[in-house]
Structure formats: C-alpha cells, structure tokens
Here is the input.
Amino acid sequence: MKRVYKRQQEPELLKSYRLKHPDATWDKFRRRFTRGYRQVKQAIIEDQHGLCAYCEISIKRKEDYTEVDDFRVEHFFPKGATQDGGHNYHLDWRNLLGVCHGGSQKDVPDAEWRFSENKGDRSCDVPKGGKEITDRILNPLKLPGNIRLFRYTEHNGKMYVDEETCPDELKWKAKNTIKELNLNAPRLMRMRKAVIDKLTDELMLALAEGQDFDETLEWLAESFLLPDHKNRSIPFFTVGLDARPSDFLASSSKVTSRYVMSSADSPKNCLRSMR
Here is the structure.
C-alpha cells in the first residue's frame, strides 16, 4: 500500500451533479450519469498511477467485449455511513478510491493470475465490504509520505509491517490493514514474488556482465520505478527487492542487500536501501 495523492479539485462533472443532487446515491450517479462516472474513473486511475489503492496490482482495463475491467470505485468510508441530512459519503471525492476486484471477478483480463475460486484468496474491498472498519485500517490518502510502513519477504512475497521504521502509533493499524484487507492472499503473494524475481534477475544479470553497481541501480530506478509515458507505475510499486550482489563481487561471502521502494525516497535511493 502506498500513499495516494488525489487532485485537489474534484472532477467537474461529479461536482456539478453533487451540487444539483446533494442526497443522491453513488449507484444513481453511476447509472444515470455515465459521462460523469467515466470522468471520475479516469481521474482516479490517473491520480493512482494505474494501481489499486490497497494491494497495488495494476488496474487492468478490459481488452474485448467478453471481459470486464479489473477496476471498481471503492468508498473508504462506507456509503452506509451516510445519514439523512448528514455528510454524503456516496459523492465525496475524497472518499473515492480505485481498487481491483480483489480476485472475485472471473472475467477480468489475465484471469489466470487475477481471479481465484477460493474465497480465502480474495482481497482489498472484497473482505472489507460495507463494514465500518475505517478506525482500524490505514487510509491510503493519509499515509505518511516519507516513512516506510511495510516490507516484503523476497522468497514468497509476503507483506509485513516494518517494525523499525513504522511509527508506533501506526503499527496496530498497519498490521490490521494487512489482516482486514487480506493483503497476504496467496494470489497477491504470488504476483509480488514475480515482480521481485524480475527485478532480481535484472540486477543479477547486469552485475554478472560487469556493469557498475550504481549505474545499474540508476537504470533499474528509471526503468521500473518511475511512471511510464502513460503515467502508470509498475504493479506492487512498494515491493522490496532482495538481491545478492556479493555473489558476483565476492566468491564466498553471502551478503543480502534489500532494496525497498518508499513513496518518499528517490527511486535510486529506494533501490539502495539496505537491510
């Protein structure tokens, strides 16, 4: 999970609809004002650089008529928290996040990776549902931008709280976020592991070919950790990369270097972060 920076100005069509229909529900907006809904979806995807706000899988759009987008709009504070005459969480721009289907939709692209028949393999807003658990989990919009909260195990992609850098006042929520959103679902761990392996292979190959260590980190940072020409980030942006450059630099020693991406660090420094 990484910090989500939403644009300050809500999409114009959402704003105009909200002002005209202050008590409208999200379903009414989505179904009756499809043009406004499309604008909101696009703004969310752009703000989140194409990643799910909870698990960081890439938001995948459908490729043909037989598929559905692996994307839906999530309300961090449940729509059911809206009370008559009170704050309308349905249409609150600051309450809208873009998430994946959490492994629950069989018709998404790359379903062999993204879908699971096992309900225990579901994640993100699927286990969250409409439960009022906002006081027990982290809000992606309010994560500290300069502190690493999570790390990832290189051999299986498991996510865990960084006990050294996560502030004490956030540790309980951070651990509960992993649990409540099932962010260690086997499906997600498998996909994180694939990203870790890819980055590790690139680093090892470059070092084996005699390339300079710092130059290699710079290249990896630019290639993998910066948004592409479409402003999209790689899936699992904050996943740590475990590599063993000492395997190439020293014949017998076995020193493990941890490269962790933090939303606040420069890409190069993130890759160099040693454990």
Confidence is low (pLDDT under 50) at residues 240-275. The chain has two domains: 1-133, 142-275. DSSP finds ten helices and six strands in the chain.
